[in-house]
Structures are given as structure tokens and as C-alpha cells.
Amino acid sequence: MSEVDRIRAKIERVVPDEDERVAALRVLAFAVENADDERPNGWYLRETSRGLSLFAGRLFACGIQRGRLGLSVLGPVDDETRAHLGADAEDDEQFSAVPGGLLVWIHIEKAAQALGLLGAQFEKFVDEAMARVRRKVSTDSHSPDALAYLSSVVGRELPQPSTADEDLAPDESAEAGEDDLQARDPKVRGRAPLFSHSQVPIGALLSEIQGKTLALPDLQRPFVWEDTKVRDLLDSIFVGFPVGTLVLWHTADGKDAKLVGGAPDSLRANTLIIDGQQRLTSLFAVMRGAEVTERDGSKRTITIAFRPRDGRFEVASAVTAKDPEFLPNITELWSSTRMKGQIRRELLAALRAQGRQVDDAYEAAVEENLDRAQAITEYQFPVVRIQQSSNTAEANDEDVAEIFVRINNQGKRLGQADFVLTLLSVFQGDLRDRIERRAVEMSQDAVIELDTQQLLRATCAVGFSRAKMSSIYRFLRGIDPATGDTNVENRQKRIATLRAASEECLDATRWRDFMLRVVRAGLVNQALVASNNAIVNGYAFYVLGQRLAVSKPQLEEVISRWLFGTLLSARYSGSSETVFEKDLARIAPLAQGQGEQFVRALDDTLNERLTSDFWGQSLVMSLETQRARSPAALGFRAAQIVLGARALFSDQPLRNLLAPLGQGSRAAAEAHHLFPKAFLSSCGVTERRRINQFANRNRSGGGLRPGSAHATSGA
């Protein structure tokens, strides 16, 4: 028996149920790809006496044991999520090395729901774990055979951990063309600090914002905080807790900037917010009653209520509006609408009018808490100022971009794509603006909603045949792999290449034509798309196919086939950068006129997964599922649309019912089960998993006979 077969037999003993085993292994495969995307030399997969365990750095990230799946997340995990996953808080294990890190143990039968409920928190944990790795992780405990087994189950090749000291793209090393000994050349890097410390009252900072002397640089993200976080910030200041440090950049010459709050107005400012945007925007919005602009360009106000009796802040709601104990909008406390004394008197009078008891202790608490809330304007924010001194030169754009990236690599981390966007903000601000604007425009009347990072990834794929944003960030900066220095000439050349690729990817006609290919593959509705990544990656291949001069009919056919095949096989589900980069590598050497080789490369890639065994066995087993949105179930519906199938018991083609032609109060297609639970039970089908696949749960208390419920979706 081979090692792979031995491991297979072992895991089958650990998790006897095949559906549960496959679901758990898919979670583990997602975890492997996610860890590799973050740091290829910072993880390993180990076979243990009880199953399989993945380590990110030196911390347990994901593992399968008898009857349970372990997933490390950045907590907390709410009670509803725990109930769905069968995860008991008493079984959690905390990580001292990662504040907020939790190892959550999930019932194995709930593994299929794990990524949907905890996937984002898992990714954050991996980010934090990898950020604490200072050197490559020893792979002595790594089991390549366990990874080979895992690849065979999920149907795609998974990466092995890298043994390199750094995660450098191969062509970066080759492009340097210099002796590695160059890295040993002496170099003085240290210098006097670029910053100074001070403390500034919140009121003074807000006055600078209102006066447009303190603003946001283009590299900052949109405002993303929820109202609950704004409430918590005010509460922390109110009770005297530290709320972090602001980092401000002072320049001799004004820089292009934007107003705090995300308003589209642009201006020139000498003081820019490098760290603290979300906090200052929140305070400005609440204390000045200003609107904030969100990612999609919509504007909203943030309304926080305050209860003076006990100094409690709450997000304003119908409940707080009706409760006379609450000041419905605390903005009043800092505006000139009503003085504090008037607010206090009217609040107490309203309480007495409703028969509430208001004694001296109550009045004293109200007075004290209103005073303390109003005094929030005097809270002293610690401020780090990046500015020229007698010992240092003024920080340049590249210094500030690197400071921004390093700051955001701590605490709440940005994604690697955010760092690439930061680089564009500093050196090609108009290009970043165009990508963001076109992402919104291209999402209109499209099957999927496209975000800025996805469009950036497609553009980088076309420009550089790369998908890993961590490598693209280093590549775009023009970093010399030998010395670690930034090569300005390389940076300019590579950004110019990206700009040229963007002209192809942002073209409205090309995107519209591609959307027609998406529809041709049967994907007429967002609900039929299991992974937006598959659509965006397919668009990159569509653009590359046009660049290689593939004939229009041939390109349209192969792209429709590629879209359907990658979605059906879940090729780009989960953490997909590694798989996408390998796919790009297959066509990277091709030149214009080699269209046949392009088509063959895509078809060969699909055929490696969509074998006769896949069609005859794997797909059939995948269709035996409870999940209405499984890749196989969605692929089946898309195939029905392509074939022009009619809905069951209807004269309407299924396409007409699923295509988003209008927005009614009810869905155009409703799915019901053919066989009620009671009927299946009478036929001897009693296993819960199989009943849930195609049975009604009769909640009325009586049984239904066959045919009294039916499938109008055609499925």
C-alpha cells in the first residue's frame, strides 16, 4: 500500500461518512491555499495520530480529527454562528500569540457550512499568524503524501510549501542579472526619526478638518466602519480608554487630497491623515453632523443616541427615539441647536411628564454624564507627526506609502490588493481612480457585481501573467531582489505596463461582449454563479485571447466552455490566487498568432479535472446534495438554460424565470420538493441527509401524498 493510500484509509476511518469527509477536506484545502497565498514558506501540513493538521507559522490553523473539524479564527464568534456549526464555546482554545485568536471545534457534519460562516475570520487569523513569522518555517514535519491525498479528493493540485527564504517570483531573480553577493555590500540604512510626538484635542482636529487644512491622501480607503464601531469609539473615549494614535504627514508643498468623510471634492492640503482615517471620520460625522460617503458612492448620516442616566451610547433606532431617557441624536450636544442646560431640563421634564421618578441622584447622574460627554471634544489624541526636522529631510511619497503599508500590516490588516492600490495612489492616482470608477460602471447590468480589487487582479493578470497580489506589490515597486532597494526605473516601466493592460481590461465594449459569453454559458443570474472569481478570471483569459488574435467564434466558444467548466469544478473557489497563477503560466509564453495553442492550453487544463470519471462518478455524486447552491446543482441549472429546457409543469423556458428581467415582490421561480418527508419515510428513506436532499419538511402536521408538491424550477 502506498503512503497516499495509507493516509486515505486512515482519514476514511477518522471520518467514515463520505459527504462529511469531502466537505471537511475541502475546508482544509481552502486553508492550505489561503496560507500559501499569504506566505508560501510559512506553513506545513502534518499527519498526526488523530488526523491531519495545518500550521500557519507555528500556530494550528485547521485540522480534521474524529468527529470534528478545528478552525482557527480571529474572534469573537457569535452564538448564532456557533449554533449553526455545533460549536461549544467551552471547547474553544485561545491563542496567546494572536490577540483575539480562537481555535473553534466544529461538528464534522457541519463542515460544509464552516467557510460560509467563518471563512473571513479564518483568513484574518492566517494574516495575523503569518505576520508573526520572521523566517521560513521548517518543513521537517510536513507530509507531502498527505497533501497529495488532499489534492486527489478536492480535484485540483494544491501547492507544496516553499523552501525559499523569500517568496520571490522567479523572473524577479532572473531579471536582476547581478551576482547574489551584491546583497553583502555594506550599506547605511538608519537615519534620524522622521516623526515627532504631540497630543491634540479632538476639537482642534475637527476644526482643522472643517477648515480643510487636515485632509485625506488619495492612498486612503473609503469609510468602512459600521455604526456600532462608531458607538464603541465614543464610549471608549467617554470612559477614558486609549483609542490609538493618529499619524499625520506634514508637507512643505500641498498635496492632492480629499475631504474627510469621503466627499468627492478634491483640494490641496499640507497635513494629511496617514493612520486614523476611520476614527477621525467617525468623530467628524457624529460631532459635526456631517455625511459620510461609502464604497458605492452613497451618502449617509451616522446617528448615535445617548442615555444620560448611565452614560450609555447606542446606535439610534425606533426604540431609542421613543424612549424619553435617550437623547435621540448626541450631535445636538456639540451643535448650537440647544445648549446643554436646555437639553437637560427638557429631558427631565419629559420624564416627569410620563410619570417617571426623577430624584436628586438621577439629576446628578444626568448632569455629570452630559458634562463628560460634551467634554469629549477635549480628549487629547496622541499624534505622531511625519515632518521635516533639523536632522532629517522631508519624507517623500515613497516613504509615506511604505509607512502606510507597514502600519496597516499591524492590527486590522489590509489585503495585498489594497497595498497595490496604495502604490497606484502614490504614483498613478488617476489610474487607481479610473479602476475604481470603472468597477462601479461595469457592475451595472452585469451578471456579477465587480469590485475594485477583482478588476485590479484581472488587469495584473493581463499585464504580468501573475495573480498573487503579494508578489505583484513587490514587482510593481521595482524591488531589487538582491539588495531589497527600490529601482525607480523598473517601477515606472512596470506601472506603464499595468496602465497599458488597464486600457484593454477597462474597455466597455470588451466587457459587454464578455458578459454575453457569460450568459451563453447559461449564467443568466448572479444566483447561478458560485464564485465571482471564476467570472473575473475568465475575463482575464478573454482579454488575453483577443491579444493573441484568437478568432472571435473560437474565442467565444472556448471562454463559454471555460466559464462553465471552472464553475462546475469549483476551480476558483476559496483562495484561488495560486491556481489562477498556474493557469496563467500555461499561456504566458504564447505570442500573437498562437491562438490554437491558447485554446488547447485552456481545454487541456479543463480536461485534467473534467475526466470521464468526473462526468460518470464525481459529478453524479456531487448532485446528490442538500445544498441548493453547490457547484454541481448550479451547473445543472445553467445546463438546462443552455439546452432551452422548460420549467416543470410550465410552458415557460427556465431562462425566462431565472433571468433578472424585473424586481417583483416574489421570485419568478419557486423550488419545491417532489417527495414529502412523510411519503419518503413510508418508503423506507429515513436517513436525514437523504431526506433533506429531496423531501418537503411538512410543518403542518399532516402528510402529503406524492404529486401534491412539485418542482417549478425544473430541478
Features:
six-stranded antiparallel sheet, five-stranded mixed sheet, 28 helices, alpha+beta, globular, 47% helix, disordered C terminus
Written overview of the protein:
The chain is α+β, with helices and mostly antiparallel strands. It is 47% helix and 13% strand. The strands form 5 sheets. A 6-stranded antiparallel β-sheet has the order 1-2-3-4-6-5. α14 crosses α15. The longest helix is centred in the N-terminal third of the chain and has 21 residues, at 18-38. It is globular. 37% of the residues are buried. The model is unreliable at 166-183, 662-668 and 695-715 (pLDDT under 50).
Rg from Cα: 29 Å
Q: Strand order of the main beta sheet, please?
A: 1-2-3-4-6-5
Helix content, binned percent: 40-55%
Global morphology: globular
The beta-strand count equals 17
Q: Identify low-pLDDT runs.
A: 166-183, 662-668, 695-715
Major sheet: 6 strands, antiparallel
What fraction of residues sit in β-strands? 5-15%
Mean pLDDT: 80
Q: How far do the termini sit from each other?
A: 42 Å
Helices, by number, come to: 28
| Class by SSE composition | alpha+beta
Provide the fold topology.
Blueprint lengths: L2 H12 L3 H21 L4 E5 L4 E5 L2 E7 L2 E7 L4 H7 L7 E2 L6 E7 L3 H21 L12 H11 L15 H7 L18 E7 H9 L3 E4 L9 H12 L7 E13 L7 E10 L1 H12 L3 E2 L5 E2 L3 E4 L4 E4 L2 H5 L17 H14 L6 H15 L5 E7 L10 H12 L7 H12 L1 H15 L8 H13 L4 H9 L10 H18 L2 H13 L11 H16 L4 H17 L8 H11 L7 H15 L2 H12 L7 H12 L11 H5 L16 E2 H6 L5 H7 E2 L19
Parallel strand pairs: 8-10, 9-15, 16-17
Antiparallel strand pairs: 1-2, 2-3, 3-4, 4-6, 5-6, 7-15, 8-9, 9-10, 11-12, 13-14
Helix pairs in contact: 1-5, 2-4, 2-5, 7-9, 13-14, 14-15, 14-17, 16-18, 16-20, 19-20, 19-21, 20-21, 21-23
